[in-house]
Amino acid sequence: MAIEDIVIPQMGESVAEGTIGTWLKKVGDAVAADEPIVEVETDKVAMEVPSPVAGVLVEIVVEEGEDVEIGALIAKVDTEGNASGSSAPAPKAEAAAPAPAPKKEEAAPAKEAAPAPAPAASSGGGDLMPMSPAVRRMVEDYNLDPASISGTGKDGRLTKGDVLKAIESGSARTMSAPAAAAVAAPSGPREERVKMTRLRKRIAERLKDAQNTAAMLTTYNEVDMSAVMAARNKYKDLFAKKHNIKLGFMSFFTKACCLALKELPAVNAQIDGDEIVYHNYANIGVAVSSPNGLVVPVLKDAQDMSFADTELSIANFGRKARDGKLTVDDMQGGTFTISNGGIFGSLMSSPILNPPQSGILGMHKIQERPVAINGQVVIRPMMYLALSYDHRIIDGREAVTFLVRVKEALEDPTRLLLDM
Fold first, then answer.
1. Which one from 5, 155, 391, 412 is the annotated catalytic residue?
2. Is 391 designated active site?
3. Domain covering 3-92 in this structure, CATH number
């Protein structure tokens, strides 16, 4: 045997440790080089750790839920096991029903002991099948029956890859209304206590620190989205054909914010001790909802990006967030953030700063409302905008002017092309 140690790789300068999430492979499984074998959660991002070599996983040193430092040994792989066992037969042996016969015999008593709760098998699949918090959240978000999804993780557990594959193939069943009601039945525990993930804990700490540290204030305005929607409807087909990506609203807002930040640099600045750091570039953070919580990947030098560059980057961030492949570098260096609560139906909110940034723009739902224009009441697609800012370095005049500039650019998109 030739044993290769698998260690936690470097995940960024500020990341010193992580938490083992879900093992994607179990002892005895064949692994390919660069194939993900375990999910690791840090205080910045959840990511998959690949095996640097091909072989057979012979030992798992650190179990799920345990904290580990960067560079720590977590598993061992026999690099000669794959060659002697040939990778093709190994999966077949796993897939074949006769091989795991002993496991079926062990599971038989459990099935005999619970013939009555058969209806709960579909509704309570989450209780019968252990899942990590991230996988459980994904199953609940899509209202899926976990019993209808084949698990490839340790001891047959579901992984995020299993759930995503089932969603894409359409093989996963959704929970029916009666089944959902059965979950609330008093047959199971009334409460469930789940350890907070490292990422969720860090999000909570940062948001609370922002409230405790910054002199946070929010100012509001509204924008008539008629011009943006007209431009989008006119060119969306040509845009998609040329760039192979849909033309969304975020590129308009990102460009409008870059113009406003250029005019009002205090909104793009941050406090460092007793100094104010002004940034001559715009690294725009885009808040994205992922199975592990809210993450904010950053569009680096957004002021130099085209509409197509912006849309492609945001789409890529969305895929990486869904698949748990965001890196620490994707998350660092932001100078200003845009949060779009409108995709969830939010009409108005006050976003919380993303430290050490001093400003965050909140987008909201586009809703047709009656407005007075030139003495007449007309129906227009309107959106409320909210700018939360650190009043220690941004005055009310600057905050209000920033929102007005964003509003003007969106109501007359020609300004975006003329840099006005």
1. 391
2. yes
3. 2.40.50.100
